[in-house]
TrEMBL record, chain A:
Protein name per its UniProtKB record: Molybdopterin synthase sulfur carrier subunit
UniProt family annotation: Belongs to the MoaD family.
InterPro entries assigned to the protein according to its UniProt record, in alphabetical order: Beta-grasp_dom_sf (IPR012675), MOCS2A (IPR044672), Mopterin_synth/thiamin_S_b (IPR016155), ThiS/MoaD-like (IPR003749)
Database matches in Pfam families: ThiS (PF02597)
Molecular function terms from GO: nucleotide binding
Domain of life: Bacteria
UniProt entry keywords in alphabetical sequence: Nucleotide-binding
Record PANTHER family: MOLYBDOPTERIN SYNTHASE SULFUR CARRIER SUBUNIT (PTHR33359:SF1)
Organism: Spongiivirga citrea
GO biological process, one term: Mo-molybdopterin cofactor biosynthetic process
CDD domains reported in the protein's UniProt record: Ubl_MoaD
SUPFAM superfamilies: MoaD/ThiS (SSF54285)
GO cellular component: molybdopterin adenylyltransferase complex
UniProtKB/TrEMBL annotation, chain B:
SUPFAM superfamilies: Molybdopterin synthase subunit MoaE
Pfam families linked: MoaE
Family: Belongs to the MoaE family.
Top EC group: transferase
Name assigned to this protein: Molybdopterin synthase catalytic subunit
Alphabetized CDD domains for the sequence: MoaE (cd00756)
InterPro entries, A to Z: MoaE_sf (IPR036563), Mopterin_biosynth_MoaE (IPR003448)
Pathway(s) where this gene product acts: Cofactor biosynthesis; molybdopterin biosynthesis
Gene Ontology molecular functions: molybdopterin synthase activity
Keywords in alphabetical order: Molybdenum cofactor biosynthesis
Catalytic activity field: 2 [molybdopterin-synthase sulfur-carrier protein]-C-terminal-Gly-aminoethanethioate + cyclic pyranopterin phosphate + H2O = molybdopterin + 2 [molybdopterin-synthase sulfur-carrier protein]-C-terminal Gly-Gly + 2 H(+)
């Protein structure tokens, strides 16, 4: 599973894509994915907010994530 | 087309009227956001904007379509930059046109406020000795 990173998320991970592979129990929902990301990189827990986009739409925690989905971490936005 | 959404490397503010004018519109309202030289008493040297472009376009389309449902508008534009921008550069331009001014004033405010809340675009502030991703921390 590849996760697109933008803004501060890219700085925290040090890459523009985060790859999850070889996990016995890979995250199955957006909520599980958030927990996984915060455990892997605790600095995500310090942000004002942490959202996930699935197929370029904001996703709630109960939404399932599948291998073919385009997934992105959306740190606090600051356009305009 | 009623809606014009763009992510660009440079905003052309001179096209606002041409994009928004319409035979049935008696009013055009535009908001342009620009790079300010100071944040909380610290001197800002530049801003750098990054977007998740596919999603940013989709979110701006949703916002523009919601505005069309809320007000009777003839035209809506939402343009945002990506890349490094200097002091006084325009970075966002949103606008609406309508038969009477109330609708376009209210819609314009909605467009920029909702863009700032939802659209996946990030700005990094460059100060003399540091850089900061805006709003990232409480």
């Amino acid at each position: 599973m590849n996760i697109l990173l933008f803004g501060i998320a890219k700085d925290i991970v040090g890459e523009s894509v985060l790859t999850i592979e070889g996990e016995l129990q890979p995250p199955k929902t957006v909520g599980e994915l958030k927990n996984y990301i915060v455990q892997l990189h605790p600095k995500f827990g310090e942000l004002s907010s942490l959202a996930i986009a699935v197929n370029s739409n904001y996703a709630n925690d109960s939404m399932k994530v599948n291998d073919g989905d385009e997934i992105a971490i959306i740190p606090p936005v600051s356009g305009g | 087309m009623k809606i014009d959404i763009q992510i660009v490397s440079k905003i052309d503010t001179t096209i606002a009227y041409e994009k928004l004018s319409h035979p049935e519109s008696g009013g055009v309202c535009v908001f342009i956001g620009s790079v300010r030289n100071v944040t909380q008493n610290e001197k800002v040297e530049a801003l750098d904007f990054e977007a998740y472009e596919k999603m940013a376009i989709k979110e701006m389309e949703t916002i523009a379509n919601d505005a069309l449902k809320k007000w009777k508008l003839n035209k809506v534009i939402m343009h945002h930059v990506v890349g490094k921008k200097q002091i006084e550069d325009p970075v966002v331009m949103v606008g609406a046109s309508s038969a009477h001014r109330d609708a376009c004033f209210e819609a314009c405010r909605y467009l920029i406020d909702t863009l700032k809340e939802r659209v996946p675009i990030w700005k990094k502030e460059f100060f003399e000795n540091k850089t900061v991703w805006v709003s990232s921390h409480p």
